[in-house]
Amino acid sequence: HFRWLAQSLSNKGWPVVVLEHPGSDDTAVQALLEGSRPLPGAEVLPERLADLNAVLQANEKGLVAFPQKELILMGHSLGALTAFLAAGAIPETGLSSRCKQALDDLFLTNLSQLLQCQLVDVPLPTQQKIPSLKAIVALNSFGSLLWTGEGTSSVSVPVLLVGGTLDLITPPLIEQLGLLMALTPNISSRALVIEGASHFSPIRVGGQKRDSTGYDLFHLGEDLVGVEPLGVQRLLANEISIFLKKVESGERQGPSLSMRM
Hints:
By secondary structure, the chain is an alpha/beta fold.
C-alpha cells in the first residue's frame, strides 16, 4: 500500500527498498479500515526493528546491495516510531507516570497515547545507531509521551514530520509539532500539516481509484480516509521529493512548519 510512494521516488532517481512486515499488506489494511482487524500495537516494535536490522545486515554482508551508501528511513505511524527507535532515540524515563496522568485525562482525539503507553510493558532491544543514516521521513508519527524534550535522547539527522488535520489517532498539533520540538533539534527538520488529511490518507488500498469528485471509492468516510486521499498522496510525493533533494544537497535551513491544502 506504499508502492505508490516507492514508485514515485524511484521514478525521480532514488533507489527504494520496501520492507513488508507481517500483517502489513493490502489485506491487513483493508481489514483494519473495515474494523475487522485491530490496529497493531507496540508489541510488534521489536519484530519490526529486527526486520530492519536484518535488511541492513544483509546489505553489509553483500547479500543485498543498496546502490547508495547513505540511508533515509521512511515510515507511517508505527513505522515512523520504528524509524525513530532505529535512529537511536531511547524513550525517556518516567513513561509509566506520564501515562498514568495522560490516561486519567485521555482525549479521544489522540488515540496514539494508548499505544505509547503499551511500551511500559514492551522491552525494546538495544539499538545501535545507523552510521549511514542521513534523514527520516515520518508520516503521521507519534511519541509525545515517549519524548518530552527533558531527556538527552534525540534524532540528530533532519526529519520531515507529516500530519493531517483530520487525524484523530496522531493529531498533528500535539504529536508532530511536539516531536519536532522534543526529538528533532536538527536545524533542517520540517513539519508539514495537510488540511483535510487523515491518519489513513497516505495508505493506498488495492483498487483505489479516483472518481469524478476525487473521493475514495470505498466510501469509508472522510473520518478514515480524509478528503481526496489520492490528492494528499500526490502532495506527499512532491513534498517528500523536495525534502530529499535538500537533504541530498546538504542545504541547511531554519526549522519550518508548513500548512498545505
